[in-house]
Amino acid sequence: MQTLRTPDERFAQLPEFPYAPMYCDIDDGEGGRLRVAWVEDGPAHAEPVLLLHGEPSWSFLYRKMIPILVAAGHRVICPDLVGFGRSDKPTRIEDHTYARHVEWMRSLVFDALDLRKVTLVGQDWGGLIGLRLAAEHPDRFANIVVANTGLPTGDIPMPDIWWQFRNAIQKAPKVDVGRFVASGCRRPLSDGVIAAYDAPFPDDSYCAGPRAMPGLVPTSPDDPAAEANRAAWKVLRASKTPMLVAFSDGDPITGGMAPIFKKEMRGAHGIEHPVISGAGHFLQEDAGEDLASAVVEFLRDR
């Protein structure tokens, strides 16, 4: 598998993101190795909060939440998915599959970091991947927070706006990541923040991950990932693991999933679920402080 690695100098001037990256090597699934990056803060002995980002962002998305979670006494682990952030970037779209992304994150959080009693916070693809991990390794998870995400099986049609996003990012001559993130926010982003989202991608040769991910979402019942996701739904529906549903009030892509999670997931019953107001799809960017406070309150009651 051929990969690219974003030069360190691209990350030299990130606003409000002082965290030094950590790295480990994992199997790429083809006999090679991939370097995966994460940032970490908080007491090493505390139970971990695993923050998983989605498409086309990276761990920088959680910069408003990390200090609040750490101040509440939590250990925070925030990885970059393979193909994003400081993690290595396979150069072919075909290198990216849903199953591989689940396995790559499993290798990091369980094999390399040996995380246990995990609280998952998953948004966008962070939920698609994290919920699979929670279903397939339930003994490792203590709590789940779903935030503007889903677990699609292809049995329910995706909204038109999602198809528009998929077509735009797959067909664009150049993937303008910062602009795509900004378009998913309700509040304007500064030039420095937009540049930080662009930083992992010096040119389009680095963008196979962002281009690939929309095509990996199961959109038909016979999708290669559909059966594994149905199995995950079955496990999670019956699971007693507490689940907080913390969606924004302005996400046309995943907003319809909030009532489904609240109704279908046993672990969500009997919990007061917040609505993060004034936020779009990237609620961590628009209202990260509010989401972090909701997570802290949820964990305080556990």
From TrEMBL:
Example of a GO MF term: epoxide hydrolase activity
Domain AB hydrolase-1, first and last residues per copy: 48-169
EC number: 3.8.1.5
Pfam families: Abhydrolase_1
InterPro entries: AB_hydrolase_1 (IPR000073), AB_hydrolase_fold (IPR029058), Epox_hydrolase-like (IPR000639), Haloalkane_dehalogenase (IPR051340)
Enzyme class: hydrolase
Keyword terms, alphabetized: Hydrolase
Signal sequence coordinates: none
UniProt-listed NCBIfam families: PRK00870.1
Name used for this protein in its record: Haloalkane dehalogenase 1
The organism's taxonomic lineage, starting at the top: Bacteria, Bacillati, Actinomycetota, Actinomycetes, Mycobacteriales
